[in-house]
Every structure is written in C-alpha cells, then in structure tokens.
Amino acid sequence: MLLNLRLLPLTTVMVLTTSVHAMDLLETLHLANQNDPNFAAVQASRGLAEQTTAIARSSLLPQVVVNGGISRNSWNQDPVTISSAFPTVGGKTSYNSTVWGARVTQPLFNWSAYHQFKAAKSQRSRDEAKADEQSQNLMLRVAESYFNVLRAQETLILAQTREASLNKNLEETRARLHVGLIPKVDVLESEAQRDSATSERLTAENQLNSARETLNASTGVRVDSLAQLGDNLPIVAPIPNDVDAWGKLAIAKNPQLIALNYDTEANESNRTSLRSGYLPAVNLYASYNDQNNSGNSSVATALSSGKSAAVGVEARWELYAGGRTLASERQAAYQTDLSRLNLQSSQRSIENQTRTLFMTVNTDASRVQASRRNVASAEMAYNVVESGYSVGNQSMVDLLASEARLYAARRDLADSRYDYVIHSLRLHASAGVLDESVITQVNNWLVGQSKSSPNKR
Question: Which UniProt keywords apply (predicted)?
C-alpha cells in the first residue's frame, strides 16, 4: 500500500518534498532590499526629504554675490569748450574698463522666510514619514508574497495527495466492479471525485506559479525553495491583548497619520508665511566695487575710475500687490482646513482598520485551534469509514465523502494558519510598528532555514 500522506503533518510532507536548502523570510527581505527598485526609490525619497530644510534655511543666512567684467568702451560726445584756458572736453573717446565688486546681504527681519523654513521642516518630516510608510508597505508586500507561496505549496501538496488517493481508489473500485462486488455508480462517483481533484490540482499549480513569479519579481532572483511554517506555530493573542490599545497605537505610530499631521503643520506655517506679506523685509548689507578705466587720458574717463564701499540697512515693503497676498492667504487657509479634515478622516479610518485587524487576528487564532481539532476528528472518522469499507460495512460513497471532509479540514487548517500570520503582519503595519524585529519573530516560526544561493534570473 502507498504511503498515506493524509495522516502526516503537512509541514513534514513539505519538508520531505523540498530541497534541503531553503531561504527564510529575513533572507528574502534582504534580497528584495538589494534588488527591488522600489526599496531603492524609498532611499532616494529620504535623500530628497533631507534637502528640503537646507534649501529653505538659505533664505535666513547671508547671501554673497561677486560680479566682475572687462569691456572695451567707445563714447562719442559733443565737444564742449569751457574757456580758452581749458582744453576742449568731449569728442570721441575709447577706453578699456575693468570692473569687479562684491555684496553681502544678511536678513535682519523676514517673517515670511522664517515661516517658510518652519514649513520646510514639517515637509521634511512629512516626506520621511511617507518614506517610512512606503518601507513598511514594501516589507509587508514581500512578506505576504513569501507566505502566499507557502500557502500555494501546501494547497498543491494537498491537491496532489488527494488526487493520488482518488486514483488509487478508482483502480480499486474498477477492480471490484469487474468481479461484481460493487455497482457501477460507485465507479462513476469515484471518477467524478478524481476528475474534480485533478481540476483542483491544476488550479493549485497555476496559483503556485503565479505566487512564485510575484515573489521573484520582488527579489530579482528565482527562489527555488523556502523555509516552511512549522507545525509548532505559536497561536497567541496580539500583545497587548486590548483593542483600544491597538487603536491608540495606530493613531500615534501609523506613518500615514504622522505624514498627514506634519502636512497640516506645513500648511499652517505656509499660511502664516503668506500672511507675513503685509510686513516689511529688512536686510543688513555691505558692498564693495572697483572700476579701472585705461587706454585714454581724458578727464571724463579718469573721473569714472575708482573704488566705492557701502554698509547699510535696507527695507522692502510691498504695500499693494493687486490683492494677491490676501487671496493667497485665504487659499492657504482653505488648504490648511482641508489637510486637517483629511487627517481626522484618516485617523478614524486607520483606527477602525487596526481595531478590525486586531479582532481578525484573534478570530484567526481561534480558527487555527478549531481547525486542528477538526482535522483530528476528520482523520479518526476517515479511519473508521476506511475500516468499515474494507469489511463491506461502508460504501464507496461514504469513503469518498469522508475523504473529502478530511481534505477540506486540512485545507481549512492551512488557510487559517497563513491567515493568522499575514493578518498579524498587517496588524503591526496598520499600527505603524512593523519592523525587522517583528519580521525576525515571524521568521523564528519557520523550519528548514539555511543559506540559499539562488540563481540570477
């Protein structure tokens, strides 16, 4: 008799049918971090965010401008005779001119630039929070892809096992029909069940191939073997085991909400900056200029040569700009109100999402326990029916129905286990606390981890 894989734990079956080298979740994430351009894009976003404040701060720091030039000049002026004692002034004059100068400006009072700097700091924090959100989403996506492959593998093994068992049963029923021990309807029922199992196996193969391609697209390599989810998966309630605590954690830690909060602060600072357009801007300045004319000995040319220096305070006050300042300030006020309303709406949505995920994880934990008991009951029921069928007390229809219940129980157990893991990761991501420590904890639930050397695609 063939080995009855129905009675073996699925993880044991998967370990028996996979390579000894398996890539675990942490290795997969590190590989995706190296090869997935989306991870590189997140790093580029962080770099962009860091420059925002430096650009805005420049408006508050000294500005230094240096200029210079060399020219050949021609000047044609009507001759002017002052008296017979003085030479005639004017006429055609040509000369060379060398000019250079420098000006240093330091803002003393620029309320608009100051609040633009505050807005830029909030924008930088907002962009960094968005990068954190993208990083979490990418981490979650790769982790889900990893466990979707494991789920598809387990589903395929179940389908293959059931198909093989039904093929064997079909051979037995045909043999019994041949000697007249059973009616033909039993054979037809066996064939229908086997054909259904074949269809499920083909569907499972397609789902596995699709899940693998999704994971390979993130890692940039073809991963042939993955560490499996162990049978001793600890099924515990989320910590803290309090739905209100998770809701508050999401409001405080969710990077999307953090980004929206900083966006509101940036809009408020921008509004204040625009309102500052009614105030003057005052600068301290110092300048130096040096002009040297040569190539002509005329008095006019000589008088235009020389050096000049100046130190002073200058003010610029725009008294009227056609209503632009007032309209811009009102527009910024509406934008601030809009961002505040978006923040409130997102807070409610994300808090509700996190609370729902908390309850879902608790439900998944209960489902896993119930599914384990269901599998144990289905296995015992199948053994009883199989024994009865071997002595003629049970029909083939009873045996096939019992086997179908066992297959469904196994499949529900697998789904509940992967739902528990994936929903746990989603819960941490929704609360804004999904990081490598959480991934490491989940990685410890895997068996068969070892270094893998996947081939480049």
Answer: Cell outer membrane, Membrane, Signal, Transmembrane, Transmembrane beta strand, Transport
